[in-house]
Specification:
398 residues; mainly beta; 5-stranded antiparallel beta sheet; 5-stranded mixed beta sheet; 27 strands; 10% helix; globular
């Protein structure tokens, strides 16, 4: 994805607010695992050293039908469902795992956008009980494995909040009788409780109201990851912590620690009266970590994205060996014709594979590098230039 487009996504996800919530309080008996990371020194290597089963799959749509960006992805059997960006309508595409288009949903009877400026049908997709569930609260559609709409539901949007004005920013049902509620750390005059996370009515995380950091900014959405194998992860805005959640409560905290040169001092946002001046600070200190997000579990790895104004990085932390790998530091080589295997784009996990996507214009990077290295690019790789849509990439970490 072009960096300019990423920057637009960044501005759309910025939150600047009055807040007194930075230091988080939770049960001291919860295990805390500190992960110390020097971004520039995270272990990398070449594609042939680090990856296996690398495959490029061009998405083949109807003539003139272009996908600008893959916002979300889910898998069922030998099918992959894709939701495009909100700017292109949040459409649903169903492909076989070899990239052939099976169905597309760009219009559903009865769907009415909530806002004139945003007519996207869908934002998210999950695979549940052998079906795809597409959602854009308050609209939801259930789709079968062939891409046929089974049913739709539109619920009245309500602001869920407690009697004291504490609003729910997200919720995740982990089992039929267990739901996590995320309230965030945003401050308002009505808010009397400092709950950040609860499991049903049990408070798991609170914030310290005596903290003085009043500005919040994020490049990645805070809240819950997708539920997989009975586990999910929570990230809190402008914190570099990952909270692991199970069916009975919070199980572990991963505290990601960066060097001072990558850390924004807590008092820094207090020096700025508005976003523009703080943005100038970030421009001058673009290696500072603003937050982490996009958490997912892959085999023995915990994968997450470190957000900075420039050069965001994907990391993979091995829970067994305690080693941290920089996926962004893996270098293409002759084994994949020097073709990039992912960009700044989202990553997705399914079974033994990690999925991402690149664009046909990335082929030029591979061609130029192959020329520099006097390497002959394979015909299969060169033929990817024929396609106009994103190229799905899947691979395994060794």
């Amino acid at each position: 994805m072009k960096w300019f487009s990423l920057l637009l996504l960044f501005f759309n996800s910025v939150i600047w607010s009055e807040s007194k919530a930075q230091r988080l309080i939770y049960d001291e008996n919860i295990p805390v695992e500190k992960i110390r990371v020097v971004l520039e020194q995270t272990q990398g290597g070449t594609v042939s050293e680090m990856l296996s089963d690398l495959e490029y799959i061009p998405l083949q749509t109807s003539k003139g039908d272009l996908i600008d960006y893959i916002s979300d992805m889910a898998f069922l059997e030998d099918r992959v469902g894709i939701v495009t960006s909100s700017s292109s309508g949040g459409q649903f595409y169903l492909f076989s795992l070899d990239g052939k288009l099976l169905n597309k949903i760009s219009r559903i009877d009865g769907f009415k956008p909530e806002h004139k400026e945003n007519k996207a049908m869908f934002y998210n997709i999950t695979a549940e009980d052998g079906k795809f569930v597409l959602s854009n609260h308050p609209f939801k559609a259930t789709v079968d494995i062939d891409g046929n709409v089974l049913d739709t539901i539109t619920t009245k949007r309500t602001v869920v909040e407690r009697e004291d004005g504490q609003r729910v920013r997200g919720q995740l049902s982990i089992s039929p009788d267990s739901t996590y509620y995320y309230y965030g750390t945003l401050y308002n005059d009505k808010r009397k409780r400092q709950d950040v996370l609860t499991l049903n009515d049990s408070v798991l995380i609170q914030y310290n109201p005596q903290d003085t950091n009043r500005a919040q900014v994020s490049l990645a959405p805070d809240g819950f990851s997708k539920l997989r194998d009975g586990k999910a992860y929570l990230t809190v805005i402008q914190k570099t912590m990952i909270f692991e959640l199970g069916t009975h409560g919070m199980e572990r905290v991963y505290d990601i620690v960066f060097p001072l040169r990558n850390t924004i001092p807590e008092e820094e946002p207090l020096k700025h009266e508005n976003w523009e001046t703080f943005y100038k600070y970030l421009q001058a200190n673009h290696i500072k970590v603003i937050g982490i997000g996009n958490i997912m579990r892959y085999q023995d790895y915990l994968i997450f994205q470190v957000m900075r104004l420039q050069n965001p990085m994907w990391l993979a932390y091995n829970l067994q060996t305690k080693e941290t790998y920089g996926l962004s530091n893996i270098i293409p080589d002759t084994s994949n014709d020097y073709l990039p295997f992912f960009d700044f784009n989202n990553l997705f996990v399914e079974d033994d594979y990690i999925y991402s996507f690149i664009y046909p214009n990335h082929l030029m990077l591979g061609k130029n590098k192959s020329l520099d290295e006097r390497h002959t690019m394979s015909k299969a790789t060169a033929d990817l230039a024929k396609y106009n849509n994103p190229i799905l990439v899947r691979f395994k970490l060794k």
